[in-house]
Every structure is written in structure tokens, then in C-alpha cells.
Amino acid sequence: MNITTTTIAAIATPMGRGGIGIIRLSGSKALSIVKSLSHRENFVPRTPQLCTWKDVDGEVIDSGLVLYFSGPASYTGEDVVELQGHGSPVLLHALLRRCIDLGCVPAEPGEFTRRAVENGCMDLSQAEAVVACIDAATERAGKQAQKHLAGVFGKKIEALMHALTGVVAHVEACLDFPEEEIPELFLSQLCDQLKRDLCVPIDALLASASFGERLFSGASIAIVGAPNVGKSSLLNLLSGRERAIVSDVPGTTRDVLEVDFEIQGIPVRLIDTAGIRESSDLIEQEGVRRAKETADVADVVVFLADASLRDTWCFDGHYDIAVFNKIDLINPSKHKQMDGIALSARTGEGLDLFLEAMSEMLGEKLVDGEDVFVTNERHRIAIEQAKEHLQVAIPMLKSEEQLDLAALELRRAWSALGVIVGVGDVEYILDRVFSEFCIGK
Ligand code: GDP
């Protein structure tokens, strides 16, 4: 237990009224503060005890359970106490104020988890998984976050670092004993080892990143097409709400509207773009520009046409799925002429086929072969950097003159991977990561 740190406290449950509200304390004074607050001495670790918490005049603030974890066997590695009271913002604030009067300081966002990392209870990728668990928008994302939390991803990165350390040690040994002759095959064997034990798994991890990142930040599907073909209607049908303005006047959808839902456990944002057509109206022109921009960066582009209007069947731009809307207006015998999915945003006919096609298209675009994925940009960038250093190092390993430079690049690759689990310039990395946390975590 680190006795030099302050004792921190924060409300750990979301603001608002609820059945239970929790205040968490961590630090060397946590237990003594709770003893004063509860007028009680005997707290047994990991055993909930019903207590009444009083203010300075002896008046009751609230009552509830005290759960004490004796450090280092706690979340932060320090003494941790949870006060599980009633979920009332007023009572929780009064209780927190009393804890502060008794000697705690309010916790910074993410400070509990930061202490856990600093005290070696978890690595940095596990700390990030705490946020990922909280933020997971789908069950599938939640399951992946649990794997990261359990350290599966961190261990994978550490295994890569371990393999790299082995190669660096061999190269360093060659440099330390220049008088020794390096066996002919030795360096090429090291190159093979780097490719097999590092480059191959790194490529697999990077291939998983597009899927992993979408699992948390969401995939985007843009609907493009001429004005009035039914883009807003389709969006409304999917969202079940009157979100986009549906109108008979072409060009009424002027801004990009969005609806969030889930396909195969991936959070998906469907974006309705302004009808793409040439326009003299300045606001509409801006809408068209944004629509093109949205379509350019979307994971999947759906081109929507009006089945009853041939003029709308052509689209000058890239798209992944063609959908013919308003099939309720045409004779079913004409369905055959349309090369795409037949749909009616009015009756809902064909919606299942449309969702299936989007799901297939997403599956094709996002590889999910790995068991544990790269799920955030920070990790992906670090792995890409490691790969770049390896790519520079490998050809250098082929000539004895460049061995020192190769060793430098290999150490850089090692440091790039270390950034993921929190080895290296620790303070800088911790500041960056914990700026995204909420208070009480
Ligand atoms: P957008 O400009 O592409 O967003 O088109 P809207 O969603 O605003 O729809 C334009 C018009 O077409 C509205 O009057 C809608 O009610 C109508 N509409 C949309 N979908 C269908 C459909 O499947 N069948 C029929 N009959 N009308 C539709």
C-alpha cells in the first residue's frame, strides 16, 4: 500500500435518483474516515456491514452498507471502502462533503483506475477496457471489452514484446562481442524469427482493427440517391421515430440526419444524406457537398432509387448496395427489371432483405478472424509504429555493418508496443489515457 498518496473519494454511481448510490474511497485514510463517519471500529474486509453515517453534529446523513477491501487486495491496490447508500444526489453529496471534511480529497476523473495501474493491479490496456466496458453500445462490444479487461489483449502484446526482447538480446550480444565471428546463418535466422513471431501476429492484429474499432466507435452506412426517393422515410422506418422530415417537396432534407441501431452486434449509424443533385440553392448545395463527403468516408454506401421513377435509377458515384424503394407503387412483375433490393419504406416490405444485405456487406468489409481485437485507435497506431520499425530493422539485420542501427529500430518497435500496456514514458501515456475517464472510476 502506498502511504504517501492522498485518500480520494468520489460518487461512483451516475447522477440522478436510483435505488442505490455508491461513494468510493481509496487511500491510507479510507478506513479511519469511514470509522469516524460510521462511529464504529470493527470492519472486516470483504464483508458488508450495515452502518449509519452521521454528520459533525451527530445527525444521520444516510445509512447503508460499508464494503471494505484491505490493500493491496483491492481495485486500486490501496485500502478501498465503498459506502452503498441510497441513490439520492442530495444525500450522496452530503456524504461526500462529510468524507472530505474528514480528510479525503475529491478524485480526479479515472483516478481510481490510474492508481490501480500505478500500483501494478492492471496494465494500461486493462484500464482502457474499463472505459470500453462502460461505453460498450452492444453486447458483442461488451464481451470484447471483458476480454481486454481480463488482460487477454495485454498478454498478447507482452508476448510480442517478450519475443522481441529475445531477438534484441541476440543482436546486442553480436555488438558486444565484435571479435566473435557471427555464424553464417545466424542473422537470417533472426530475420525469419522476427517475421514469424512478430510480423505475422502484428499483421493479424492490424487486420482485426477495422472490425474492433467499429465494434466500439460504430460503423457508418450512408444512404445516397436523388431527392424524394424515400431516404428519410427509410431512416424513419428503421428508427421507428419521425426523426427525419419526410416531405413531397424534393430537396427538403438539407442536413445529414442519423439513426443508431445494431447489426450483428456492431453499433451502426445510418446516415441520411441530402438528395444528391445539382442545385442552385446555396443551403442545398452545402447539403449536397456534405452528403458526398459522408458517402466518401462511410463503411457502406447504400444507393436508394425510386422503383417507380427510372430517372432516379442512375447514380454517378461509388455504392455498395442498390435499393429500389416504393415497390408498393409498381406492379410486382416489374421487380425483375431492378438490379438490387426491392423495398417499400411505406409498407415495410423488403426491410428484412435490406438489413440482411447490409449485414453481409459489413461482414465482408470488416474481418473478425482474431479472438481478441485491436479495439482502439491508440493501440492501432502503436502497433502500426512497431511494424514500421520492424520493417526498417529487418533488412538492416542482413549486414553486419548495420547491426547497431537494427538494434535501435528493434528497441523502438519494443517501446511502441510498450505504450499499449503502459511501459515507457509512463506519465505522458497515463495523462493521455485517463483524460477520457469519468469521475469515480
Ligand atoms: P428523400 O427526399 O429521399 O428523403 O424522400 P422522403 O423520405 O422525404 O420521401 C419523399 C416522398 O416519398 C414522401 O412523400 C414519402 O411519403 C414518399 N415515400 C417514401 N417512401 C415511400 C414508399 O415506399 N412508398 C410510397 N408510396 N411512398 C413513399
Helix and strand string, N-terminal first? Answer: EEHEEEHEHHHHHEHEEHEEEHHHH
Tally the structural domains. 3
At the fourth CATH level, what is the homologous superfamily of the largest domain?
tRNA modification GTPase MnmE domain 2
Q: Predict the CATH topology of the largest domain.
A: Four Helix Bundle (Hemerythrin (Met), subunit A)
The counted number of beta strands is 12
Apparent shape: flat
Strand content: 15-25%
Please describe the biggest sheet, giving its number of strands, its sense, and whether it closes into a barrel.
Answer: 6 strands, mixed
Quickly give the structural class.
alpha/beta
User: Which ligands accompany this protein?
Assistant: guanosine-5'-diphosphate
Which spans of ≥5 residues are poorly predicted at pLDDT below 50? none
* Count of helical regions: 13
Tell me what you see in this structure.
It is built from 13 helices and twelve strands. With 441 residues, the protein is an alpha/beta fold. It is flat, with a radius of gyration of 29 Å. The model has no long low-confidence stretch (mean pLDDT 86).
Give short descriptive properties of this protein:
441 residues; alpha/beta; Gyrase A, domain 2; Four Helix Bundle (Hemerythrin (Met), subunit A); 3 domains; six-stranded mixed beta sheet; 12 strands; flat; binds guanosine-5'-diphosphate
